[in-house]
Write a structure and sequence with these properties.
By secondary structure, the chain is mainly α. Helix content is about 70%, strand content about 0%. It contains 8 helices and 2 strands. Strands 1-2 form a two-stranded antiparallel ribbon.
Amino acid sequence: MSTASQSEFAALLGKNKSYVTRLKQAGRLVLTAEDLVDVEKSQALIALTADPSRNAAVEARSDEKLGQARNAPQESAIGNSYQTAKAVNEKYKALTAKLEYEKSSGKLVDADEVRLFAADLATTFRAQLEVLPDRLAPELVPLRDTEAVRALLVENFEQLLTDLADKIKQREVT
């Protein structure tokens, strides 16, 4: 690891000291505990955070203005590279396109619509359960055989569940 003062690093790059100061303020320099520039790591970080789509002249002018625009701590500078930002941007564009595709293909539905449907389904289920005793009591009273009571209860419960399943299927079609 070779180190240099900020002035020496500026001379090594063929830039003025203010350029190196702005690199430092932007978090694009790797400094030692003695506040010296780690030459190799700093050059790598500068290259990593450079915009590859811009030519050197534009990059130099941009770097001259950089100091006032960005003031990121050195620890987070590596995570803020141009390439990382570009990759994140592309990832979110792809996710947005996937989301639009899934909406248009019917694989994705609005969460509020689902909540309303679930509430409606639960209300329907509760209403059917609440009337079940009143509806079944007259049919159960004359029965003395437990198997007959069980068969009547099973039949009514299955009908209730079938009605709910039909309601779900009807919702899937629309």
